[in-house]
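Could you join me in thinking about how sequence relates to backbone shape in a protein? We need material for that, and I hope you will provide a protein of your own picking. Once you have written the record down, we can walk along the chain together:

…
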Amino acid sequence: MSMKIKVFAVVVLTVLFAAGSLCVIPDASAQDKVRVGLIFGLTGAASPIGPLQLDGAKLAIKEINAAGGVKLGGKKVPIEFYVKDDESKPDVAIRRFRELQDENKVNVVVGQTFAPISAALNKEAKKTSIAYFPVNVVAVGMFEKKEMAETTFAIHGSAYSIGYAGASYIVDKLGLKNIIFFGPAYAFGRDQWQGAKDAFEARKVKVEYLESPVGTSDYTSYLLKIKEKKPQIVMLAHWGVDAINVLKQTYEVGIKKNSKVWFNWMTNAFGSGVPPEALEGVYSLMGWYYDMKGFQDAAIVKASDAFAKKFQAEYKYPPDPYSAMAYEGVREAIRGIELANSLEGKAISKAIMANPTFDSMKGKGTWRADHQPLFKYGAYVTIGKGSKERKNAKWDLVKIIGAYTGEDYLPNLKALGY
């Protein structure tokens, strides 16, 4: 072998060795901490909910650290977390997501408040294979097999399910068929409408659909039109600041005098943002509620009460449903790390799918092939309390009157490409 060939061979081997070294997954036993990125809509249109989610996520981390940390590499290591504000804007969220990976070197990202932002960051997770746990309600299209990243797990499901469950309950349990659906012209509202439409069509019920443009704050003209039609019930599908505005204005124009009102997806933030008389008698779905007393499943009542007490002791206000799901999302991310004994996203994903069932304050949850969980209780049906019923004027908002169970709460896996 000539000298030139020998030198060339040494150079090639050196380059290959260096490249291989860059691809080596760090030994779990060498890790001294787990770095978690928390990114929510702390300002902007998502701000009624984002800070409440952050509090839930931080409580989960505090509890895990207080118990010694994360089991990794035969020892327990602490969680170190970094907080970012996506400002309720997808372009900002992408920058923050990349900052968390490039600057803060996080091993997993938990967050999101708005569906379009989760969809954008799911694409980022596809590129980087980082473990990503969105804890908001995401667009149903994100669960399609061609869209969902291998390392993304969306614990709060899709808005499609909200619409489907609400429509089913209105027809099957309330026996109503003269219905108007009023939603916003963005993904959260339109996904709800698709779910509701499918449920109505399956029951051969025709429903009128009205839509308000993005950026609408005064819904009076739409609501007056609805009032004139006198439907048996109107379904409202708005979110964030829009949700508070539409609930207030529905009451102010007097729709409740002739029609029932169904608000598709209630949170503490929305309910406490309107006068008690605006919420009184309003039906709604909630992903979870902090006061489950009287619900038929004693285990759910106990688990929910335990979390609510811990949260209230920490933050001096009761947890929102979105606080609860952020808490559960963090715990699932850490469960995945411990199962995999690794911080590598694909290893975490494989470990979760090999052990898909977990405990939660919504009962047993089981991750499906589309990376959303089927819970024992998908959602709870509530009715709003007026001022006379409330023990606490601000936070005693609703009472649980039922629950939605079964897999038809979730989109069909075959339709999603599985």
Remarks:
- The CA atoms of residues 188 and 239 lie 8 Å apart.
